[in-house]
Amino acid sequence: MADYIYTMEIRLTPDQLKGVSLVQDIARSAGMNVYLTGGAIRDIISGFTIRDLDFTVQGNPLKLQKEVERAGAQVSAADEDARTVFLALPGNVRAEISMARTEKYEKTGKPPLVFPATIHEDLRRRDFSVNAMALSLNEGSRGLLLDPFNGVADIEAKLIRILHNYSFLEDPSRLIRATRFAARFHWPIEERTQARYEAAKEGNYIDHILRTSVGHEIAALAHEDDPLNVVKMLEKEGWLKVLHPHWTTAKVDANGLAHLMKTRQQMVDLGYAPDAGPAVMHFLTARLSDKDIADLRKQIPRKDLVDAWRDIEDHAKELAKRLMGKEAATPSRTWQLLSGARPEMILFLAVTARQQAVDQKIKNFLTKWRQVQQKIPLPEMTELLITPQLPEYPKIAQDVFMLLLDGKLRSRTETLKFLKPFAPPPPPPPPAPKRGRGKAAAADAAVAAGKKGNVKKGDVAKGKGKIAPAPAPPAPAMPAQAKPEVKSKPANAVQSTRHATKSVAKHPPKKAPPKKAEAKAKAKEKNKR
Ligand code: ATP
Ligand code: MG
Question: Which of 4, 168, 233, 495 has the fewest CB atoms in 10 Å of its CB?
């Protein structure tokens, strides 16, 4: 049987995994059974990007809000009717926790009646077989996959299949969802599902779509990897105008969008995790009127997305202004500034910057300046014992990088000259091998050596007085021109700068070889014999 916990662990990002633990622990302590469900399971099994985490609890997730906030998550929206909480977990991880429920559709176009239910019942109200699976995160059954509609088989067959014949009638937003998933995965719609889909189209079921579902589907576009392709498919099927009557592919800034997605990938490859959602919405609606955009925003349930989309241009302008000012007068200062900026803003500005200087600085930050990191002479630094084990290492590496960026260290020789004063003293030679009654001799030696320090024989046995720490050598003075004005980390090249303020004087303590004491002990031994 497949080990789904293992699959989950290797497929989720470290931040997503932490998010799973966070929600799992909070639900457990509240006494609620919790499952990872929906698209998260589909994507874990199919190998596609896992864009958000869907949790289902047996109980009311609204009660968990305070706890999740205390654990560092932000609640971006809460749907009291559907008992669903939308979260931004630490590290830009989108998630939602919904109540396991059954839905009763009484009237077309009216929201269903919702009842708390078991996870098994909950899976039956879902849209497609590939989305109707749950992975238990509960003690005793953790890792158990519930797959009542054979979703795994449909993932293998790459098919989108509804769970029953009334699916599109009950919730016409599933027509849009089916098109969206077909466009995203390039999976066909299963034959009988396709027949129901066509019948639903003929019967204009879509006229009964709920406003909340429209908002959900608008927001979903923000997180597609190829949003233009999805929008084109929605338009072809007649669903884009359902999301907004004036929305067409002609209203999309296709070039801007393509540039955005390319830059996003470039940033991901460099280890950033920008949330492209707000910028995607900006380009998808670039040629819509302000009023139409305001209409679209009003329907989106996640207010964090709406706010970020609304503010993106202003925030980018602020960053552009700073990049034109004193704060970014040198490459090293620009590096500092951009290292501290939100990756979302860098991404957006990379595509939209009007000033050539700003554009160039961002380009350098993402490409040319990273190559400067290769000029840091790591092998020579290792030879000089300037290694990550030194507490001051991050600061030294940081300083070298900044100086290289600004062209203040122009050759390897200059760089090594700068580095040499930071080299710690070499470690002491290994202690001479002990022979015979070495322990006693060493103890006597230590007593002799440690007279001032009150070392007793018993202490030596406990390992107390073995090494007499030498006083730390004086701090090597930093070359005046090398004193950095800046402190943030050059990504990839060096470690965290958390210790950057620590004094460079802190070298590891030197072992004092207890030579005299050893000789004395040997003489004593001789006399005894
Ligand atoms: P995505 O990768 O876009 O997030 P998803 O399948 O996870 O896709 P969500 O909108 O996050 O979609 O919804 C989570 C889960 O909730 C879905 O997988 C599905 O099981 C269920 N769901 C969402 N919308 C509907 C719906 N209209 N009808 C039935 N089930 C739905
Ligand atoms: Mg999802």
Answer: 495
Q: Are the C-beta atoms of residues 123 and 148 closer than 8 Å to each other?
A: yes
Whether 93 shows a pLDDT value over 90: the answer reads yes
Place 273 in a pLDDT band, splitting at 50, 70 and 90: confident
pLDDT digits (tens, 9 = 90+) for 445-457: 444 444 443 434 3
Mutate-to-test residue for ligand 1 from 37, 50, 127, highest number of ligand atoms within 8 A of CB: 127
**Residue 482 CA to chain centroid, in angstroms?**
34
Q: What is the DSSP string of 428-450?
A: PPPPPPP-SSHHHHHHHHHHHHT
DSSP-derived letter for residue 114 is E
Average pLDDT over residues 436-441: 53
pLDDT of residue 81: 83
| Ramachandran category for residue 101: left, alpha or beta (phi over 0 → left; psi -120 to 50 → alpha) | beta
Least trusted range by pLDDT, from 81-90, 223-232, 431-440, 487-496: 487-496
CA distances from 143 to 121, 123, 383 (A): 19, 17, 48
Nearest CA to ligand 1 atom 30: 126
Nearest to 84 by CA among 92, 74, 71, 75: 75
Give tens-digit pLDDT for 358-377. 999 999 999 999 999 889 99
Residue whose C-alpha is closest to residue 494's, from 407, 420, 386, 401? 401
Sign of CA dihedral 315, 488, 88, 254: positive
Distance 454 CA to ligand 1 centre (A): 72
Q: In angstroms, what is the span from residue 26 Cα to ligand 1's centroid?
A: 23
| Amino acid symbol at 44 | I
Contacts of residue 99, Cβ cutoff 8 Å, sequence gap at least 6: 56, 57, 58, 59, 60, 61, 82, 83, 84, 114, 116
| Residue 87 structure tokens | 């979260």
| Distance of alpha carbon 365 from alpha carbon 368, whole angstroms | 7
